[in-house]
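can u pls check wat happens w/ GLP
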Amino acid sequence: MHLSDDYADLSRQAAAAFADVARAKPDATVILATGNTPIGMYDELTRLVHAGTVDLSRLRVFQLDEYVGIAPDDRRALYGWMDRAALAPWGVPAEQVVRLPSRSDDFPAAIAAYEAAIAAAGGIDLCILGLGPNGHIGFNEPPADRDAPTRLIDLTPESIASNAPYWGGIDQVPTKAITAGMRVLLASRRIFLLVSGGAKRAILHEALHGPVTSQVPASYLQSAAGVEVFADRAAAGA
Ligand code: GLP
C-alpha cells in the first residue's frame, strides 16, 4: 500500500507512479476513472505535462463507465468529465479514446466492440480505479463476479446517493449505466486503486482484508496481479 498523509500527498504519489508508466510507454493503454478521488492525481499530472516532464498526449484511453439514457453531450456525461479532467489538459485526441456509449441502438454490439478494441490494443497497461461506497469498481455493482463482462447495469440506491453530489441531487442521477466488466479491469497489467477519506475506511478494509466475494466487487483485487493501493491515512486508518 502507498500510504499518504493526506489527499494532496496521495495525488502526488499516484501521479508520480502514473507518469513513470507513461514515460516507459508513451502510448500505454489506460482506463481512467471519473469520480472525485482521481481528480487531484489528474491535476497533478496536468502540472507535470505543463512542466514538460511527461507527455501524456499519446496515451490510448478507454472509458471506465458511463451513465445510460442521457445524451452524449449531457452535462452529466462521464465522458465529458474525463475529457475536462484529463483528456483535454493532456492533449489526448478523441481518436485515441474508446468510449462507452450512453445511448445505442445496439448495446450488445457496442459492448462487443469495446472489449474487442481492448483486445486489439493488446490489453490494458494501467487501470485507474476509485472505490464505491458499496465496494463497486467502475459501475460493477454488487453482486459482480470476477469474470463479469462489460455490461449494462441498474445503479444501486447507494451508488445513486453517492453520485448525487456530483450533479446536484438524487433526482439528477441517471439510474442505469454501462461499465467495463470485472474481467476487463482485473486483467489490466497494473491497477491503481485510489481511496481517500474516513468515509471509505470501512469499505477499503473490507475490500482488502475481508472475504473475496461478489458482494464486494473490489475484494477481487486481492487476487489480481499488479494492484497498487494509494490511500491516505484517513482511508487506511493508519
Ligand atoms: C462512482 C464511479 C466510480 C468511482 C466511485 C468512487 O460511482 N462509478 O468510477 O470510482 O464511484 O467515486 P468517488 O471517487 O467520487 O468517491
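Helices lie at 7-24, 39-51, 78-90, 107-120, 157-167, 182-186, 201-209, 233-236.
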